[in-house]
Amino acid sequence: MEEADIRDALRVIIDPEIGRNIVDLGLVYDIAVERGGVVRVSMTTTTRLCPASDFLREAVEVCVASLPGVTQAEVRLTYEPPWTPDRMYLT
Asked: Which end of the chain is less congested by CB atoms within 10 angstroms, N or C?
């Protein structure tokens, strides 16, 4: 499992407030693929008190855990650095 494969899979998760996927919004900060199929994702939300925070974290965890070869998925929310629209990938 490669980081790029995980990013591609995460594109199905849509931020309910903005209507775009979390990868292109720049909400996924880091993906670490470790031995034994452990994947750690560091991500943020558009605001610290985003009402969709739990939904998005859980959706990422379920999505990553369902990928072939993944034995454990850990998702950590962070707000450093804070998200800004400059992080978006314009497609």
From this structure: C
How many domains would you assign to the chain? Answer: 1
Q: Tokens at residue 28, please? A: 């996924």
Instruction: Identify the CA nearest to 37 among candidates 8, 11, 68.
Output: 68
Give me the CATH number covering residue 50. Answer: 3.30.300.130
C-alpha–C-alpha distance, residues 10 and 59, integer Å: 9
Please choose, from the candidates 13, 86, 11, the residue with its C-alpha nearest in 3D space to the C-alpha of residue 53.
Answer: 13
Domain holding 60, by residue range, is 3-83
Residue 85, C-beta contacts closer than 8 angstroms, at least 6 positions apart: none
pLDDT tens readout for residues 24-33: 999 999 999 9
